[in-house]
Amino acid sequence: MNETAQNRRPDGPILAIESSCDETACAILAPNGTVLAQRVISQDGHADFGGVVPEIAARAHLALLPNLVRATLQDANIAPATLSFIAASTGPGLIGGLIVGSGFAKGLALALGIPFVAVNHVEAHALTARLPGIVPDGAPFPYLLLLVSGGHCQCIAVEGVGHYRKLGGTIDDAAGEAFDKVAKMLGLGWPGGPELEKLAREGNPKAISLPRPLWRREGCDFSFSGLKTAISQKLAPFGKEPLPRQFAADLAASFQQAVADVVTNRIEHALDMMPEAKLLVAAGGVAANTVLRAALEKTAAQRGLRFAAPPLRLCTDNAVMVGWAALETWREAAERNLLPINDNALRPRPRWPLEDMASRFEAEIPSA
Ligand code: KG4
Ligand code: ZN
């Protein structure tokens, strides 16, 4: 067997680290993607500030990672010496956290004498649907991905490993950011999305009329700032007085409905732009919202498409998706005779457009 064939699949488990925002996470995957262990710590030092504080996040990653990695290895009963490679989110995200996580991963890989694989965090969200067991009968390319979280809001045509086309994205706030800001205006805790969804269950989604930004506008960009302004105007007459519970619930339900309406309208346009898609995938924290999920499921069904949303623990930031994206990258590189990968020289990137990912497979080396 030549070296390339041996390298086609890593022969031992791999370890992955996620640290691009406020989740510190570690996972260990078998070469076929089976999750052997995973741990996520959602940092708790940010709630008082009503948002993620980058400096606090970076310091927390630094404090948490050594024990987290040790504990995850113990959970999987894996000796570090048996690992095949180490992967870490290397962008996009908050630069402090990226430096800590990818620096830790590079150091560990160097000490063990194994490769380091840099993972694009958004690509990891995009490929999660292909993790074995997530979508019945699998998620073959191409599919449409709706990524809606606190930091991202995009429609992406996922055409292959390393091959992505951004069809549209937010021109102001991300969907999760809008949920968080509106929840704050309603006096709810942070992160606001789940709290707002809970309150909305007591309300009437038709009670208060709100705008539907970019409704039926060409393309599939998103905008949420007008919706946020409309909410603050509805709240203005109350000044500093406490809001009547029913009014707050009606406002929450009406806002949630407006977001679901806008997002499904944008998705319809995205599907028009990608008629070859057979599957619609929703990912990111906001994909946990049951009203939005139901609306997306209905839109997909009307078009004869399958719909999938990974379970919540894989929708929000986690290290399993980082490990899986690294395994997919590794396999793709092997198929193109590009192995071995070693991204030690790759610097963390606060911005890292998905369109850049194809270049990692461009320098095709002819097989011997
Ligand atoms: O993917 P995620 O954990 O982190 C990143 O932002 O990358 O997403 C967190 C976002 C927060 O804005 C949170 O409020 C929102 O997802 N979220 C929700 C729900 N659960 C989480 N938004 C609406 N409804 C929910 N049930
Ligand atoms: Zn994310």
From TrEMBL:
Residues holding Fe cation: H121, H125, D317
GO molecular function terms attached to this record: iron ion binding; tRNA N(6)-L-threonylcarbamoyladenine synthase activity
GO biological process: tRNA threonylcarbamoyladenosine modification
HAMAP family registered for this protein in UniProt: TsaD
Record's protein name: tRNA N6-adenosine threonylcarbamoyltransferase
Family according to the record: Belongs to the KAE1 / TsaD family.
Co-factor binding details: Binds 1 Fe(2+) ion per subunit.
EC number: 2.3.1.234
Reactions listed under catalytic activity: L-threonylcarbamoyladenylate + adenosine(37) in tRNA = N(6)-L-threonylcarbamoyladenosine(37) in tRNA + AMP + H(+)
Record function comment: Required for the formation of a threonylcarbamoyl group on adenosine at position 37 (t(6)A37) in tRNAs that read codons beginning with adenine. Is involved in the transfer of the threonylcarbamoyl moiety of threonylcarbamoyl-AMP (TC-AMP) to the N6 group of A37, together with TsaE and TsaB. TsaD likely plays a direct catalytic role in this reaction.
Gene: gcp
Entry keywords, A to Z: Acyltransferase, Cytoplasm, Iron, Metal-binding, Transferase, tRNA processing
